[in-house]
Design brief:
Blueprint lengths: L6 H28 L14 H37 L14 H6 L7 H9 L1
The structure holds zinc ion (ZN).
């Protein structure tokens, strides 16, 4: 199956994905630093209970954000693998080409819009 995307476009998306990955990994590092639970003094300080509750909420929010970022990194990694395999730009489910407009918007898109919708309902 010939790739619908030109080498130039694939190269461009490869660069975008790699830059995005570096950015996301940096964000994860920053968020980990913000996590009150990663504070080495946390265990030893005698903070009041309300501080603990606030720290718990902060921790949960940060953890959710990190998970979200990690999922994107995973999608980007998958997209980069697809580029090396020559399958980038094709839906992983139905193997149909993903429209370029969608890839411009979401370079790490793994599925065409139809499949993505079906997967969300499932
Ligand atoms: Zn599809």
């Amino acid at each position: 199956m010939a790739n619908q995307l030109s080498k130039t476009i694939i190269k461009k998306h490869n660069d975008i994905l790699e830059k995005e990955k570096v950015k996301l990994l940096a964000q994860i590092v920053e968020l980990t630093k913000d996590d009150p639970f990663s504070d080495p003094d946390h265990a030893s300080d005698n903070a009041a209970i309300d501080t603990d509750v606030r720290e718990q909420v902060g921790h949960d929010t940060i953890e959710a954000e990190i998970k979200d970022l990690q999922k994107r990194v995973k999608d980007i990694d998958a997209a980069l693998v697809k580029i090396t395999k020559g399958t980038y730009g094709f839906c992983e489910k139905c193997s149909m080409p993903i429209p370029l407009a969608r890839l411009e918007l979401v370079p790490e898109a793994r599925y065409c819009i139809d499949c993505e919708k079906k997967l969300r309902i499932m």
